[in-house]
# Entry
Amino acid sequence: MTIYALSTGPGVSGLAVIRVSGKDTRVVINKITGKSVPKPRTAVRRKFNKISDNQLIDEGLLLWFPGPASYTGEDMAEFHVHGSRAVINEIQNSLSQISNLRLAEAGEFTKLAFQNGKINLLRAESVADLISSETEIQRQQAINVMSGKSSDKFNSLRERLLKILSKVEAKIDFPEDDLPDNILLNIHSEVKSIREEITKILNDQKVGERIREGFKISIVGPTNAGKSSLLNYLSKRDVAIVSEIAGTTRDIIETHLNLDGYPVVISDTAGIRDSKDEIEKKGIKLALKKAENADLNIIVIEPKSIDFTHFFNDKISKKAILVINKMDLGTDQISNEIKAHDPIYISIKEEKNLDKLINSIKENLKNKFISSEEIFITRERHRINLEQCFVSLKNFEQKKSLEDFDKAAEDLRLATRYLGIIVGKVDIEEILGSIFNDFCIGK
# Structure
């Protein structure tokens, strides 16, 4: 089936690109332009006409990419037209009238590129990450993955395991032939080396996922301490409702920020207190859970929050900043117990000392994003499969006797399969849908 879709963003723009891919792309070009295909990869000026009555829709550029030397690996074309809704709608309406041509699904062009061997699964994911990148560090990470560094690393580990597996299977197929002792020793030595390399990759402090998904900051504290006001200040807009009424915020309110080039997801949470209101109690439960899962907690109290020490004593750690808001009301009531945590005194109302808080957040970000090792994991599915590979190798190393060779071979097969799943070397149809559904239509 031949597919088509708008590949540029919807809305009014100077230019719009409509893609077509599939075996009938030549037919589509002929029907909508009245002419045959131009020279490959050469932009030519063409008139795009209605299929029904040959009336002119627009005049623009046509590019023809015969397969397999195209993005999808199939015959492909791009129509570059003016970006008005009327032009786009009319061209798509005409395309919809052509038999064996349908609107593409989300990510279908890139999915075809993967299925036709033009790119591997990691590069396909990096395309989606590059499109959705909002900060420079996210763009750099997507480009690094796209360059093939991660693919090369995982493919190299997989090839090493396949060589080991071939030796183990040789012993199974020809049990009468004794393998030299040095080969058996080398097998265990090589597996240990691979396992140690995987350990280094896994010990990355999840920097890759943080870059891709955003550094998670949770604002927690008692009611009426100024948590929502702080969220609004950091966001530079009114994201949360601010009220003197205690318990106004009952659900999690999230906003995405670009803080000095670092992607941040900052959450305002329900005020923590003893409450009999069932809805508020659920909100408090969500707030506590958010604090546990956050990369950084900003604990906001105010001078009268002397009964809140039981909370931050449990939560204060390397991933928390203690903030005392409303310093304009005086700080005489602050206990020595609280002062021992070196709090940052601010006044959101009078915008005092907020620069000190922001600098503290930035330092936290820099420390969390710094890693001495190269980053190869950018998604949770990479980590899960790599952890499963590690477990399989551990199981292999526990099998010492020759009688266990059958089971040992299965451990190696599983290990190579998990590495293959990361780069798309094995049948992984069950995860392809979830990956490519994240793409926009037309990519």
Residues 122 and 371 are 21 Å apart (CA to CA). The chain is about 45% helix and 15% strand. The radius of gyration is 29 Å.
